[in-house]
């Protein structure tokens, strides 16, 4: 038995948590009480999701099915059978209709006033993806549809196109492209300069073995672009420009080149709007780089053109003009070349990346949160490869993983996500269900002020009146920046009840051995055992801090307690009162040693 305990102790001691991991380790893990689910019935290869007509409602498109899910009243949800696999699901606010496209070998698009009923059909070529596996983001802007689907008659022809009022087609591509997201760069003071940005990856034409297979890019087109003259670029973009996105460590020439997802946080001033781009490298490590719309615009308006050393014609190619059809031939001929910028778009952080992690993230959504005090906080919601979700605070360009949410069974993949910012609900789609994840489960952090403050969750604050950790408001206390528990002792109204640890009494036989178990609810804390003025380090397992009680003797008849220390605040987690039993007890409990071993084995299985 002692050999077994020694091996266990040696193996588990290597689990000591290093402080260098704190930025990328979730402080707490939440597994229940914060989500509701709605079954889609069967398995679906693709799931599209859209904000519903009211809060708590979402439109969902899947394989041969359209749904309006009402999470507040599930029985009022609506489902209709559709003869296609849904690939596009948008709202056209100019006509107050639902725009739906699908494919089942042939593509179809229609506008719906009521779910499942087409008011009018539209040509699907270049709008609806040919396959459910084709990622082709699209965007409605004032009744005009910008889309990136491939053309059915030419599967190699991909690019951004505009439909309905002023149809503009993309020029044939020089290389393969994969589209990730579309975003409006505006509205600007001069709306003539409003643009649509497209985030994509281009196949790298460099055949060098060490060259990245894909190049992450952003492209622009002007909203007022009506194409060129009858001879040059008629009904094609005259303002299309492309620039490379830089994400990595520049001085080491290390870059993340596989762009996975993009989320835009719009600001009151268009140039301050931020683009959060999620990348992955060939080693499956993740990175998040942040750009501003203003910095992207500066590259398109100021950078030299790649491969062009001669004089640039006037107006500069890519500029938004009143009438693109009257642009000089020199400008249009240069625009035909699918112009790329010499300079790369750089992240706002001097370090290049906001997050660099071995975690395999797949989706990103971003929220702006008004806390208890002045100013706002940015929260990132990141889905992982295995279905977990990280709630991440961005603080001065640095990440702090507030919580790891586990609403799904281990290994279930997230197909899509939608953030409902007004209600602070995150909707998560899998192949079988849609989940509504509540981001305001503040009571999960604990029942006293210090635990609430140290959570650093911008959504939550301590209410001194109700003595609860609750949704942040002007009446609650927060310290998102520093998580200092001292704010809980400023004023009598702020005081909270003392954290009360669990106490267990154990009867042990002389000469026996056992482990004392202490759970670790906060991953960023340091844990230790204490007794009679002595401090002893833990034997770490995945979830517990253990203390080995070896060769029990009467002198060990005393109190043992486990403490957690975090941010200058200490609290007792578990207290054990050990009692050494006499010989009569030993005869009555001669098999307790075997029982202790069995319990220990069960603990680690």
Walk me through this protein's architecture.
With 605 residues, this protein is mostly beta strands. It folds into four domains: 46-173; 189-358, Methylamine Dehydrogenase, Chain H; 444-494, ligand-binding face of the semaphorins, domain 2; 500-604, Immunoglobulins (Immunoglobulin-like), CATH 2.60.40. The chain has six helices and 38 strands. A six-stranded antiparallel beta sheet has the order 3-4-5-6-7-8, with no helix packed on it. Strand 4 and strand 5 (78-92) form a beta hairpin. The chain starts with a helix and ends with a helix.
Main features:
single chain; 605 residues; mainly beta; Methylamine Dehydrogenase, Chain H; ligand-binding face of the semaphorins, domain 2; 4 domains; 6-stranded antiparallel sheet; 5-stranded mixed sheet; 40% strand
Strand-residue proportion: 35-45%
What number of structural domains do the residues give? 4
What's the pLDDT, averaged over the residues?
87
The CATH class of the largest domain is identified as Mainly Beta
Outline of the structure:
The chain has 605 residues and is mainly beta. It is built from six helices and 38 strands.
């Amino acid at each position: 038995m002692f050999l077994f305990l020694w091996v266990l102790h040696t193996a588990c001691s290597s689990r000591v948590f290093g402080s260098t991991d704190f930025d990328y380790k979730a402080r707490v893990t939440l597994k229940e009480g914060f989500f509701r689910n709605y079954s889609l019935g069967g398995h679906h290869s693709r799931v599209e999701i859209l904000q519903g007509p009211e809060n708590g409602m979402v439109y969902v498109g899947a394989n041969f099915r359209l749904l309006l899910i009402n999470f507040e009243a599930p029985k009022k949800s609506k489902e209709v059978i559709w003869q296609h696999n849904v690939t596009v699901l948008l709202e056209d606010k100019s006509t107050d209709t639902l725009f739906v496209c699908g494919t089942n070998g042939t593509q179809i698009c229609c506008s719906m006033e009521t779910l499942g009923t087409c008011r009018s059909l539209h040509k699907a070529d270049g709008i609806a993806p040919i396959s459910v596996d084709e990622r082709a983001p699209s965007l409605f802007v004032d009744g005009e549809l910008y889309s990136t689907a491939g053309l059915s008659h030419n599967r190699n022809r991909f690019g951004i196109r505009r439909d309905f009022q002023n149809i503009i087609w993309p020029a044939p591509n020089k290389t393969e492209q994969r589209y990730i997201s579309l975003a409006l760069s505006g509205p600007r003071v001069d709306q003539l300069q409003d643009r649509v940005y497209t985030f994509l990856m281009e196949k790298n034409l460099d055949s060098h073995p060490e060259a990245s297979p894909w190049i992450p890019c952003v492209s622009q087109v002007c909203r007022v672009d009506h194409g060129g003259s009858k001879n040059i670029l008629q009904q094609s973009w005259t303002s299309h420009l492309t620039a490379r996105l830089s994400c990595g460590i520049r001085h080491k020439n290390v870059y993340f080149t596989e762009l996975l997802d993009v989320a835009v946080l719009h600001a009151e001033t268009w140039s301050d709007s931020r683009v959060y781009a999620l990348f992955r490298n060939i080693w499956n490590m993740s990175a998040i780089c942040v750009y501003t719309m203003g910095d992207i615009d500066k590259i398109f308006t100021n950078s030299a053109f790649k491969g062009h050393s001669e004089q640039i014609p006037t107006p500069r190619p890519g500029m938004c003009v009143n009438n693109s059809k009257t642009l000089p031939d020199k400008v249009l001929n240069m625009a035909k070349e699918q112009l790329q910028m010499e300079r790369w778009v750089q992240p706002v952080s001097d370090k290049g990346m906001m997050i660099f992690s071995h975690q395999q993230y797949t989706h990103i959504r971003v929220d702006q949160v008004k806390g208890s005090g002045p100013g706002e906080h940015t929260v990132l919601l990141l889905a992982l490869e295995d279905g977990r979700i990280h709630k991440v605070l961005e603080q001065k360009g640095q990440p702090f993983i507030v919580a790891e949410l586990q609403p799904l069974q281990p290994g279930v993949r997230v197909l899509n996500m939608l953030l409902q910012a007004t209600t602070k609900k995150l909707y998560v789609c899998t192949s079988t269900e849609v989940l509504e994840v509540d981001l305001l489960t503040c009571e999960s952090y604990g029942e006293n002020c210090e635990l609430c403050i140290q959570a650093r969750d911008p959504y939550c604050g301590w209410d001194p009146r109700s003595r609860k950790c609750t949704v942040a408001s002007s009446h609650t206390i927060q310290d998102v920046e520093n998580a200092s528990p001292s704010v809980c002792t400023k004023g009598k109204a702020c005081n909270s009840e003392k954290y009360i640890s669990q106490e267990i009494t154990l009867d042990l036989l002389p000469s026996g051995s056992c482990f004392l178990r202490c759970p670790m609810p906060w991953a960023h804390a340091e844990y230790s055992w204490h007794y009679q003025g002595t401090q002893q380090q833990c034997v770490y397992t995945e979830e517990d801090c253990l203390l080995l009680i070896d060769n029990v003797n009467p002198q060990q008849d005393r109190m043992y307690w486990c403490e957690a220390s975090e941010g200058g605040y200490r609290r007792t987690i578990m207290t054990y009162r050990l009692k050494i039993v006499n010989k009569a007890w030993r005869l009555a409990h001669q098999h307790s040693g075997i029982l202790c071993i069995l319990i220990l084995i069960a603990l680690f299985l």
